[in-house]
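User: Round two. Same drill as before: sequence, then structure, for each protein.

Assistant: Same drill it is. First protein:
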Amino acid sequence: MAKHIRHTPNFKAKAAMAAIKENKTIAELSQELKVSRIQIARWKAIAVERLGELFEDSRYRKNQSDVDVEALYAQIEKLQAKLEFLKKKQVLKNDALRVLIEPEHGMLSIEEQCDVLGLCRSSYYYKPIPDLKHFYVSGGQRVDQNHFFLPLARSALRKNPIL
């Protein structure tokens, strides 16, 4: 297996310039420089692509990507601070938090909204059971209700108390 050789930038530039001049074919350059034809073609493409950058004046060139990245990092820090504040100041109960969740939100899923609010996702879907205390009565009250609503059944209950 061939040993991986790291070429200097000057060597790459000379190979790319020779390929651009086209005095020799890429195959001839490959044999002369002992570098793959594909590698010489890549270096030539990079050189042609970036040749215009050599003539740009750095005094007037503004690196916009650095400015945008800094602005984005500032915005991220601000949003993280808001999130931490929201988590610290949160005193709402689950019922009030469920109202804050927007199922049709374009950017945040229900899971992400629940996470931001500190609410379990299952709590969002929870439907409380209505209070049914008046339906549940003790055995004695049930017997009294049966006697009140079914007066003819009294005699049957006396004869057969298991019913």
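Second protein:
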Amino acid sequence: MQPSAGEGPDRGGIGYALRWLSDGKPRSRTAGFPSRIHRSPVATVSALSRRKGAAFERHVASVLRELYPDAKRGLGQARAGHEVADIAETPWRIECKHGARPDLFGALAQAERDAAHAADARPVLVVARKNGGQDVALLRLVDLLALLRPAERADAPQDTETTKAPENASQTPSSARQETTP
């Protein structure tokens, strides 16, 4: 039933947010109509989320300063994220994520795209924290192996013949022995 003149949602009452269509069914005022404000298809990040992300980046930088004293939050990312990593002055291109359900693999792909765009050859590392959880790190297996290889070489047993001191002079090589003649 269509409202007669002088009735309906535009004349006051609780129906002010509804638009009456020709069939008499109420619908949202904006349903089927273009919005006055253009909304980007890219998801916008709230100010609270930006502050939480910035605080997490500062936390990660402070933790990394133990190994890399110059580690700091990459401030150039406000203009173009691909130019500067979230954490600068480290041998890694670090992407930080903090949220209810951080997308680790999406963050890894984003960091790799940004690194390729910026011609950054450093290995990519994602540091993330779920709300109320612990910090975790994600990196490619090849990067982990490259990181572990120097440590493996340092732990390898040394050659015992070259490092062992001789117990008596008869065991020393003849070229090393000095004979004295009276």
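The two ends are 132 Å apart (CA to CA).

User: Perfect.
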